[in-house]
Amino acid sequence: MSLEYMGRVDRLLNIKQVSEKTSLGQTKIYEMIKLNEFPPPVKLGRSRRWRESDIDRWIASLPLAV
């Protein structure tokens, strides 16, 4: 599933794909959402999906390890 975002296709990721992309466990992702430390999902009926662009921005905002 995808959406158009600023001239490019913005994929919608499920929790497994988000977990793989971020190297975070699914439980950790939901904990971080509750603390407003991670982008919330988009609700599609009973499903939840994350915009890939939101996840990419979140990853880019992380501090670099030294």
UniProtKB/TrEMBL annotation:
Short name of any one Pfam family annotated for the protein: Phage_AlpA
Q: Which SUPFAM superfamilies match?
A: Putative DNA-binding domain (SSF46955)
Per the record, the domain of life is Bacteria
**Entry's PANTHER family?**
DNA-BINDING TRANSCRIPTIONAL ACTIVATOR ALPA (PTHR36154)
Q: What is this protein called?
A: Prophage CP4-57 regulatory
> What species does this protein belong to?
Nitratifractor salsuginis (strain DSM 16511 / JCM 12458 / E9I37-1)
